[in-house]
Write a structure and sequence with these properties.
8-stranded antiparallel sheet, Arc Repressor Mutant, subunit A, Jelly Rolls, alpha+beta, globular, 12 helices
Length: about 350
Amino acid sequence: MGAGDEIPVPLASGKASGYPGLAIVGIQECADPCHWERISQPWELMATQLGAVPFHNRKTFLATPNCILYHESFASRLKVHALSPDGMAAFVVPVRSGARTSWFGRPLHERGLPVTLPGGAEALLEAGQEHIMLLIRKTLLRRYLSAQGYAALEAAALSRLLPADAETLAALAARLRGLLTRTHGAPEMLRHPAAVATLETELVTGLVPMLSPTEGERRVPLSLRRRGFDRAIECIRHADLATLDAADLCVAAAVSPRTLEYAFREELGLSPAAFIRRLRLHVLRRALLASALGESTVTELAYHLGFTQLGRLAGTYRRTFGEAPSATLARPLHDEAPRLWPTQPVRTSNGIGIAVAG
């Protein structure tokens, strides 16, 4: 390397240890929103950076076959739309939240534990935001929770908030941080299936006291609008993004276009068509970044995702990401961060599939 040459700085880096296929622990450091989207699977994320503060995310994580636990922080303000992981419930334990941090438009510091079942998600993250995310497969929750406890979880997911006071949330955060510290300090435990099963049991049973319904509690009925929204999100999750449109969603959701429009704006702040366009745009950006120079062209990748007006696409892309698609394609990929899951969920032309890590 000659004088004046720059040493590439990884935009996503970190380390991991454990036993892929069984469980791993690791640390991710990420300095680019696009890389953050890529290494945060099984979430399907669409991030928009707000303000001039450089993006930086750090995750300390544990991933087992049925759970993902991570403690993460953000340096800059961020607007996020997402498809939450298929088949998993997501719990957000606030550690440090800004005054404007929100989850589905509600302040994250409200008295309670934010929760959602698989579906669309929306959040505004303030600079300095810090929280613990716990993802648990619904099959595991059903195994350890009573029928009443699981019904309480579903009812809480409708309101996006599991009732809890500040003391309970602090105790839960301390418990989860302790579990992360324990597994990172002794990753050799992850070679033993019995130890991994015990860790998963700890993660679930820590939530059990919060899922005990009160006397006479009734399950909140799901509205037509919300049912339509959930069915539409399930359709998006498994559809071919290149051909999917709002009319397809209405058929899949079994509701009128007007009802679906209201549902998406209520839940995500976007119309169904705008959400699909944004998802396709972010999938294109990740495809451009992952392609080696000369391996694919912008035109080929755009056509593959159903974009046909390339001039309009270039303008929208530049406004969204601050650079031309060709600049993303030309950028070297220095991505050394470990993934959150030993078997990696990936976006395919027909939806989100599973690629087994080598």
